[in-house]
Specification:
The chain is of the alpha/beta class and about 210 residues long. Helix content is about 50%, strand content about 15%. This is LuxR family two component transcriptional regulator.
Length: about 210
């Protein structure tokens, strides 16, 4: 059973999210939070598999809450109406395991939670394209990583990192590179360890910043 905390300041929206998630037989909503402070408290106490986190909330925003949960083993899936702005990049760099827009279909939301719970990370395809376009238009920011950091990767790991940067799932990477999903998962784990990254999403951002192809 996948245990989830839902953090959303709008009561009606929060109730809708809870209803969607609890319609899945393998998901249990263990707590609800109306702001980031409550989300952090519930997550630290209950240690759920996933926190579904809104970005803009009172008392403590989703970025700060996500950063405070880093290292707890709790994966954060960001859900917001906003596309590309400082909140998106801030949330992903804070260690969020995924990012989705609120116009996502119910079934896609459930599958995204399952994907994050499996440790794969999740960026909505539309968001991935926007991220790539943003980096292409503006170039690396002042905090961009040195390209030398990926020298420790094998050629195959670089290929996998490039696919992660495109937002591909393990299954899609396996098909493209003609390898098994198990091998793909192993490569992703090694990439995160070698590059000292907290999440697959951070690996995707790094791949985009460095133009890994």
């Amino acid at each position: 059973m996948i245990r989830v905390v839902v953090a959303e300041d709008q009561g009606a929206v929060r109730s809708g999210l809870v209803m969607i998630l609890e319609s899945a037989s393998d998901i249990e909503v263990v707590a609800e939070a109306a702001d980031g402070q409550e989300a952090v408290a519930h997550a630290r106490r209950l240690l759920p598999d996933v926190v579904l986190m809104d970005v803009r909330m009172p008392r403590k925003d989703g970025i700060t809450a996500t950063r405070e949960l880093a290292g707890t083993g709790v994966d954060v899936l960001i859900l917001t109406t906003f596309d590309l702005d400082e909140y998106v990049f801030g949330a992903l760099r804070a260690g969020a395991a995924g990012f989705l827009l609120k116009n996502i279909e119910a079934g896609e939301l459930v599958e995204a939670v399952r994907t994050v719970a499996r440790g794969e990370g999740m960026i909505a395809p539309a968001v991935t394209r926007m991220l790539i376009n943003e980096f292409a238009a503006t170039g690396p920011g002042p905090g961009a990583a040195d390209s030398g950091v990926i020298d420790a990767l094998t050629p195959r790991e670089r290929e996998v990192l490039a696919c992660v940067g495109e937002g591909l799932s393990n299954q899609q990477i396996a098909r493209r590179l003609h390898i098994t999903e198990t091998t793909t998962k192993t490569h992703v784990s090694r990439i995160l360890a070698k590059l000292d990254l907290r999440s697959r999403v951070q690996a995707a951002i790094l791949a985009q910043e460095l133009g890994v192809r």
